[in-house]
């Protein structure tokens, strides 16, 4: 079996019965459908889906209490219209990143180490097709979770918070009409999703080199902790040692982009417009995704992995 798997990985595909080949598009659709079903067989996917309303309720309770100590005139004050954004700010770094780490570890590391991927490779699929099918299935699943989270956040916002005709946003020089919050919220969620996908590229690279699921989870959590610590250490060193390095370098951390960078990218403050911070952070995301995805794909598709 190992020899057949290696041959399949080297040749990319093997003949179907009758000596004919299925079209690449048909193969990819079938493989993507299979990977989608495999993700939904994971308990973690269903647990998170069921937990979304509970997470939203817990977040609502937190911001209800937070409103008692925050004046209505500040950007931290939660209203019905800005609650979806506030709810994403609160849960993005921990909940969505950790969910992505667990799903990718189960999809790449566990399935490879348990031999499940070798069985898939005995069919008419190349390792490259398998890699991209897993990535696309994961991306689609996370997009679905973001949409469901947004819908529940919108409902909870109007259920638990007062509506306001004007919104005060982070890094804005003026108030925003509540009607404009729809577009702002969609843009915020879109950028939040992009940062999760950028972080996921790091997790995939970790997953394909890890010897076990435990190691992949541990290394992934270690990366998140380092990413969280980097801006604090950087700013402290810059201030204490008087290095004079530009503050924009703290956005080399993906979690810092998630924490404050998205709001900065969407800002209309005149003081920030000339710094081109949005372009800088988008470039950072692209570099992370390109480098780590390329490395992960190269390692994953090496023929000697399947021998």
UniProtKB/TrEMBL annotation:
Record's superkingdom? Bacteria
Keyword check for Transmembrane, yes or no.
Answer: yes
Q: Does the keyword Repressor apply?
A: no
Q: Which UniProt keywords apply?
A: Membrane, Transmembrane, Transmembrane helix
Transmembrane regions: 44-64, 84-109, 130-161, 188-209, 216-234, 277-300
Protein's recorded name: ABC transporter permease
Lineage, uppermost ranks: Bacteria, Bacillati, Bacillota, Bacilli, Bacillales
């Amino acid at each position: 079996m190992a020899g057949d798997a290696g041959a399949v990985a080297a040749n990319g595909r093997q003949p179907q019965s009758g000596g004919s080949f299925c079209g690449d598009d048909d193969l990819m659709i079938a493989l993507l459908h299979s990977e989608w079903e495999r993700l939904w067989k994971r308990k973690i996917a269903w647990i998170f889906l069921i937990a979304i309303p509970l997470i939203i309720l817990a977040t609502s309770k937190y911001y209800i209490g937070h409103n008692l100590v925050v004046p209505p005139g500040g950007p931290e004050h939660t209203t019905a219209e800005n609650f979806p954004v506030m709810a994403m700010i609160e849960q993005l770094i921990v909940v969505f990143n950790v969910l992505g780490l667990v799903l990718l570890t189960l999809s790449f590391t566990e399935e490879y180490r348990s031999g499940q991927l070798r069985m898939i490779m005995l069919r008419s699929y190349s390792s490259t097709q398998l890699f991209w099918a897993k990535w696309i299935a994961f991306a689609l699943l996370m997009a679905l979770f973001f949409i469901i989270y947004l819908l529940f956040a919108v409902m909870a916002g109007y259920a638990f918070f007062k509506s306001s005709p004007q919104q005060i946003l982070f890094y804005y020089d003026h108030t925003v009409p509540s009607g404009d919050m729809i577009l702002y919220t969609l843009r915020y969620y879109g950028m939040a999703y992009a940062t999760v996908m950028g972080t996921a590229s790091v997790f995939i690279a970790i997953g394909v080199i890890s010897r076990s699921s435990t190691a992949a989870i541990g290394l992934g959590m270690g990366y998140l902790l380092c990413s969280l610590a980097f801006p604090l250490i950087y700013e402290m060193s810059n201030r204490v040692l008087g290095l004079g390095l530009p503050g924009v370098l703290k956005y080399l951390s993906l979690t810092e982009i998630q924490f404050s960078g998205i709001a900065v990218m969407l800002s209309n403050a005149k003081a920030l417009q000339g710094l081109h911070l949005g372009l800088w952070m988008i470039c950072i995301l692209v570099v992370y995704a390109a480098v780590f995805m390329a490395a992960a794909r190269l390692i994953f598709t090496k023929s000697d992995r399947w021998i």
